[in-house]
């Protein structure tokens, strides 16, 4: 049986030992080398040709972000950023995702008051990262490039947009929401991301999009021109009705292995807004969101799925497509215009 070859890059010998202990316990993974700085990591990549890297943000000399950029330029390889939850590291980790890193994993014991010293769950993240489609920066720019025509505003009736994504979703969401006009329909988004990172991601989206992008808060009324991102880790984002449609954050066990779950969001918005929903499922591992997208379609809503060629991992969109949940499947650069065009069609019932 072939085992996924992993290179661990972290300046802390203790952290390297803990990561190696976790990954070595998985029969599908093989730790081929450990490096404590960029120079040694570069040599290890040349010698061992790993399938996946785990990479720390803070390292002596060349930091993890600069090293990541060089890896993506010279030998594109799936990279999982393993980061402590400092404010600076959260921002840099989200930046790393936009530069080609596949996923994030929060270092144990790095959150406020945390006593956790376990890397439990990292092995699964690394296994999933191994199947990601990683390309050079130039090809990534082409794949996610937005059309030159700016999306027109208005004519959206009472539509609601719901989007779900996972691995590769940072780039995908930047490409889609970056095309939305300032008065876009209220948009709710669940992106699989560890606790602590979604605030930085919301800020990044907000800085690169015309509508306002915020981390969702329970009880917020859905408004035109706003995008609500599910907070990572502790709650599910749902859409509920309290005279008007609102965000609701609900503490509950993971669904499909995820919290927040795309299925939870999609099911709720289908129940609350029915035919007025336009749903989109983007790149990601697994099947989360497929059943919920089918519910949106069955309720009369319009649904879009990202195609295989532009998905970092064609998992969630594939399952949704195969079960008949997708009205149309499109490459990433075409998804925003398809969503907005669907929102301009006549609706059967109002949001309020």
Automatic annotation (TrEMBL):
PROSITE patterns per the UniProt record, alphabetical: CHEB, RESPONSE_REGULATORY
Enzyme class, first EC level, given as a word: hydrolase
Localization annotation: Cytoplasm
Domain CheB-type methylesterase: 154-346
Molecular function terms from GO: phosphorelay response regulator activity; protein-glutamate methylesterase activity; protein-glutamine glutaminase activity
Modified how: Phosphorylated by CheA. Phosphorylation of the N-terminal regulatory domain activates the methylesterase activity.
Catalytic activity: L-glutaminyl-[protein] + H2O = L-glutamyl-[protein] + NH4(+); [protein]-L-glutamate 5-O-methyl ester + H2O = L-glutamyl-[protein] + methanol + H(+)
Active site positions: 166, 192, 288
GO biological process: chemotaxis
Key words of the record: Chemotaxis, Cytoplasm, Hydrolase, Phosphoprotein
CDD domains recorded: CheB_Rec, REC_CheB-like
Gene3D superfamilies membership: 3.40.50.2300, Methylesterase CheB, C-terminal domain
EC number of the protein: 3.1.1.61, 3.5.1.44
Residues in Response regulatory domain copies: 5-122
InterPro entries documented for this protein: CheB-like, CheB_C, CheY-like_superfamily, Sig_transdc_resp-reg_Me-estase, Sig_transdc_resp-reg_receiver
PTM-bearing positions, type 4-aspartylphosphate: 56
GO cellular component: cytoplasm
Pfam families noted in UniProt: CheB_methylest, Response_reg
Role this protein plays: Involved in chemotaxis. Part of a chemotaxis signal transduction system that modulates chemotaxis in response to various stimuli. Catalyzes the demethylation of specific methylglutamate residues introduced into the chemoreceptors (methyl-accepting chemotaxis proteins or MCP) by CheR. Also mediates the irreversible deamidation of specific glutamine residues to glutamic acid.
Family: Belongs to the CheB family.
Notes concerning its domains: Contains a C-terminal catalytic domain, and an N-terminal region which modulates catalytic activity.
Protein name: Protein-glutamate methylesterase/protein-glutamine glutaminase
């Amino acid at each position: 049986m072939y085992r996924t070859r992993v290179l661990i890059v972290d300046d802390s010998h203790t952290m390297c030992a803990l990561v190696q202990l976790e990954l070595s316990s998985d029969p599908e993974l093989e730790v081929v080398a450990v490096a404590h700085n960029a120079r040694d990591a570069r040599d290890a990549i040349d010698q061992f040709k790993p399938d996946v890297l785990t990479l720390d943000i803070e390292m002596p000399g060349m930091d993890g972000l600069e090293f990541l950029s060089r890896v993506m330029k010279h030998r594109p390889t799936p990279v999982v950023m393993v980061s402590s939850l400092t404010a600076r590291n959260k921002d840099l980790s989200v930046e790393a995702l936009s530069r080609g890193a596949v996923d994030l994993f929060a270092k144990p014991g790095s959150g406020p008051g945390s006593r956790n010293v376990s890397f439990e769950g990292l092995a699964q993240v690394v296994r999933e990262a191994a199947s990601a489609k990683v390309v050079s920066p130039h090809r990534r720019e082409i794949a996610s490039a937005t059309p030159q025509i700016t999306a027109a505003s208005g004519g959206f009736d009472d539509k609601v947009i719901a989007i779900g994504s996972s691995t590769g979703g940072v780039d995908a969401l930047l490409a889609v929401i970056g095309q939305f006009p300032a008065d876009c329909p209220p948009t709710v988004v669940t992106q699989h991301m560890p606790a602590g990172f979604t605030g930085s991601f919301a800020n990044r989206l907000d800085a690169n999009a015309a509508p306002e992008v915020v981390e969702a808060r329970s009880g917020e009324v859905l408004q035109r021109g706003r995008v609500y991102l599910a907070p990572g880790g502790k709650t599910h984002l749902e859409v509920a009705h309290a005279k008007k449609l609102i965000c609701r954050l609900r503490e509950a066990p993971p669904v499909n292995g995820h919290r927040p779950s795309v299925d939870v969001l999609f099911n709720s918005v289908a129940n609350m807004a029915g035919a007025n929903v336009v749903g989109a499922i983007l790149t990601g591992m697994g099947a989360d969101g497929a059943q919920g997208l089918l519910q949106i379609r069955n309720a009369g809503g319009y649904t879009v799925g990202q195609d295989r060629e532009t998905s970092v991992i064609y998992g969630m969109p594939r399952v949704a497509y195969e079960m008949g949940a997708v009205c149309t499947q499109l490459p990433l650069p075409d998804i925003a215009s398809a969503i907005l065009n669907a929102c301009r069609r006549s609706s059967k019932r109002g949001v309020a």
